[in-house]
Amino acid sequence: MIIVLGPEAISELCLKQHHSFSHSKTIELLAEAGLVSSQIIFTGVHPGTVAKISTSLWEGCLELVRDIGQHTPTLNISQWSSRSILELSGTCVFGQESDWLSRYPCLLGSLDRRVANGQVKKAVLSIFPRLIRSLLMLTLCNRKDLADLGYLEYVARDLLQIEKRKLVEPIKPSYTINIISVMLKDGSLTDEEMLGHILIFLAGASETTSATFQWMILELCRHTAVQTKLRDEIQSRGHSLSRSDGGKSLFLQIEAFPYLRAVVDEVLRLHPAVALTEHEATRDTTIMNIPIPKGTLLLCPPLAANLNTRVWGKDATVFNPERWLSRGPASQKSTNQNPCSNMTFSHGPRSCPGQSIARKMLTCLTAAFICQYQVSLENPEQPFASTEAVYVKPIPDLMVQLIEIT
Ligand code: HEM
């Protein structure tokens, strides 16, 4: 087993030599359960497609955030974000009505159990050193863990059928463009490939995006000045959620807000939701001139690249959105010199095809949330750790207090 840490070596692994390594573990697990073909190629969610769903995504975020106020000033962000990101995916990715989760009462439970199984394993494995533990966590995600995928498969098939029926029915006023309908109309994927895409959306995409949003809120609670600066940036451009259009026009400009973008980039850098990517050599090859025999396992922890002080400076472990602005020490320009200095979404043919939609969801949900509420930790003394499961989120659950901004 080899652990790949430096950006140059990662660059050879993911970009120059990618044809010498196997498919992603996620795909292999689904293939092992007979749910997708191991040869499946995920078409990226094209930025043009993401742009088409922008309006419904932004409106969905506003609605979710407004609904909180009707309930309680204290909120369990961990539970709220899992449910909210899944709800958003339902409307924007699968074209469902906003209450679609009620049709699948076991869905959240089966997703939660996948994470809970990870926690049990973590406890069992806690006698091992951290790195070995992470490795075992990955290899223990075997067929047994896939039991809940039976239910996910049922939901995925149902969602696909609903979307296919919509294509032949006359368009109803409530119909919204969504990613699955765009893929169906494109017609280049078979039903089984479509099913694979939906399963990935359900099983992996929501958990990763939700984990990142939880880190976002934790960092904003720890850095109230960043909250204020974010709010100022959005409101200084003459927009507020109380405007007559309910803030709907804001989404048109949202990605042009440099500070908001910098905050999202910094949270993604500091808290990559995927703990490890695993690569198996499918033939004899080399990395940085070191011979890699066929069958060798190579592990790449994204955090090692993302916290590399050579690239990000001495404050690599510090939450500092300013670094992304041109005056910062590690501006976008300098990190672009080697893309593998930031491995949150990986790089090359095996990189995350959902990154544009994940970024969009995080950007919109953060903007909607921060314009509506000032957020602080319920217990500011509470220490937080990271789960050592496949997806990395803060533990224990994040409890926050909200003050509505009038
Ligand atoms: C912040 C959220 C996300 C993060 C940090 C993330 C990260 C990653 C990473 C690191 C990989 C590579 C895994 C490997 O090489 O083993 C990956 C793969 C993948 N991601 Fe994401 N992801 C996120 C959200 C999403 C979303 C929203 C979608 C779908 C819309 C998605 C779909 C996929 C798929 C299909 C793959 C497998 C690609 C392949 O191997 O062909 N991800 N993701």
Automatic annotation (TrEMBL):
Keyword annotations from UniProtKB, A to Z: Heme, Iron, Metal-binding, Monooxygenase, Oxidoreductase
Annotated heme binding sites: C352
Cofactor(s) this protein requires: heme
Keyword Coiled coil: no
GO molecular function: heme binding; iron ion binding; monooxygenase activity; oxidoreductase activity, acting on paired donors, with incorporation or reduction of molecular oxygen
Biological process per Gene Ontology, one example term: mycotoxin biosynthetic process
UniProt similarity note: Belongs to the cytochrome P450 family.
Protein name: Cytochrome P450
Organism in which the protein naturally occurs: Penicillium cosmopolitanum
Species classification: Eukaryota, Fungi, Dikarya, Ascomycota, Pezizomycotina
